[in-house]
């Protein structure tokens, strides 16, 4: 029997050392635990559709250099933090100057702050389910710590632009930790972009610790190039009466993977997860979500839409777990999928695991193609077939795009979708 592949030792040697000692010690500890770590295969349940797309060559283990200028990213007024190849670029940042809000790079933390952070990193994630997040913990060279004191409110969205310059093969490991105090509020926009054509990997982890009554809106926009493998993990830990709202928009690539884990630990906590994915060519995109209802009287709402064209492949695996003490839980999951060609493939797997008897839960999934009757109706009224295809496809996802609460992000998404339509639909 052929032995299972393991992570190359080339990935266990981080380059950057400009971190406080507690974080260096944590990174070393995590790296030691990764020795002989099995890589995902088709027999790995949560990677069975994606393992064949994962290409971790030794030249990708090299940390990409953070010695250049960042691009513009989302051109919007307001607060901005820029990362280049996983390292913060202070000269390109515009920080808020508000009481109760602290934004620091990992490298600028005191030993006391770094020690406290080291104790909390990875606390929001099930590392057995998100294996590749452990690699980020062993390799991050910088990161961003956002702390909101009780009742602190960020008056504008904070844009975090992660740029990768792929002039040569390598990897980057961005890291974010958000600590939101009681009744605080923040809208966080993560944008992932790239330049260059070398084969690179981006491995990201973002964690949210959401205290009682806090309100967090997270927007994640993945627009990296065709040469970038992107593996991302987001962990959320919610306390009493808190609210977390997520809007994820992803455009496909050689491998796109996002694990989103939400744990509702306090009574009355609520989460809303929206996701839109489009793929074309031979692209691949895999969304895995998990919502853990641990406490009673919690609500969750999840809606994901996938569109696949050409020979591309999209995956959705959503799991809702209602624990025994989570009585009066209300959970709803909906996944709709649209195939634009006979060669495209979409796999969907909604899951409900319920151990409480006084709950209201529902889940559903559909996969189909554009309705020929609707197309005929539009064409018969003078609309070109290409425009009719665009109108019906946009209608399929526009409900979720319009819910994105930041106008600049909506406009960026619309622009990329228009480009997708131009490439996918030809005038008949």
UniProtKB/TrEMBL annotation:
Residues 168-396 form the SUF system FeS cluster assembly SufBD core domain. GO terms for biological process: iron-sulfur cluster assembly. InterPro entries: Fe-S_cluster_assembly_SufBD, SUF_FeS_clus_asmbl_SufBD_core, SUF_FeS_clus_asmbl_SufBD_sf, SUF_FeS_clus_asmbl_SufD. It comes from the Bacteria. PANTHER family: PROTEIN ABCI7, CHLOROPLASTIC. This is Fe-S cluster assembly protein SufD. It comes from Marinobacter flavimaris. The lineage of its organism: Bacteria, Pseudomonadati, Pseudomonadota, Gammaproteobacteria, Pseudomonadales. The gene is sufD.
């Amino acid at each position: 029997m052929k032995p299972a592949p393991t992570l190359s030792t080339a990935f266990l040697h981080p380059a950057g050392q400009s971190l406080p000692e507690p974080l260096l010690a944590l990174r070393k500890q995590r790296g030691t635990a990764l020795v002989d770590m099995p890589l995902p295969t088709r027999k790995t349940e949560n990677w069975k559709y994606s393992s064949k797309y994962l290409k971790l060559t030794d030249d990708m283990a090299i940390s990409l250099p953070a010695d250049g200028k960042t691009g513009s990213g989302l051109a919007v007024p307001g607060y901005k933090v820029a990362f280049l190849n996983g390292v913060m670029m202070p000269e390109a940042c515009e920080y808020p100057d508000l009481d109760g809000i602290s934004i620091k790079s990992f490298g600028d933390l005191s030993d006391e702050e770094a020690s406290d952070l080291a104790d909390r990193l990875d606390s929001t994630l099930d590392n057995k389910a998100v294996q590749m997040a452990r690699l980020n913990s062993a390799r991050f060279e910088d990161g961003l710590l956002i702390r909101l004191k009780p009742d602190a409110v960020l008056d504008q969205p904070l844009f975090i632009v992660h740029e990768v310059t792929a002039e040569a093969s390598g990897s980057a490991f961005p890291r974010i930790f958000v600590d939101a105090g009681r009744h605080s509020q923040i809208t966080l926009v993560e944008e992932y972009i790239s330049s260059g054509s070398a084969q690179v990997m981006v491995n990201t982890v973002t964690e949210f610790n959401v205290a009682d009554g806090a309100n967090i809106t997270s927007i994640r926009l993945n627009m990296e190039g065709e040469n970038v493998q992107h593996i991302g993990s987001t962990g959320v830990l919610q306390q009493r009466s808190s609210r977390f709202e997520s809007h994820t928009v992803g455009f496909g690539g050689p491998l796109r993977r996002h694990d989103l884990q939400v744990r509702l630990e306090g009574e009355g906590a609520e989460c809303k997860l929206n996701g839109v994915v489009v793929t074309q060519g031979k692209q691949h995109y895999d969304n895995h979500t998990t919502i853990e209802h641990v406490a009673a009287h919690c609500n969750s709402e999840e809606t994901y839409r996938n569109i696949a064209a050409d020979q591309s492949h999209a995956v959705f695996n959503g799991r809702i777990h209602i624990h025994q003490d989570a009585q009066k839980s209300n959970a709803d999951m909906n996944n709709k999928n649209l195939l634009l060609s006979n060669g495209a493939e979409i796999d969907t797997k909604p899951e409900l695991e319920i151990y409480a008897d006084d709950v209201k839960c529902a889940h559903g999934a559909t996969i189909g193609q554009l309705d020929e009757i609707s197309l005929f109706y539009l064409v018969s009224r003078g609309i070109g077939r290409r425009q009719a295809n665009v109108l019906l496809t946009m209608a399929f996802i526009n409900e979720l795009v319009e819910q994105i609460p930041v106008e600049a992000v909506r406009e960026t998404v619309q622009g990329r979708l228009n480009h997708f339509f131009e490439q996918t639909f030809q005038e008949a």
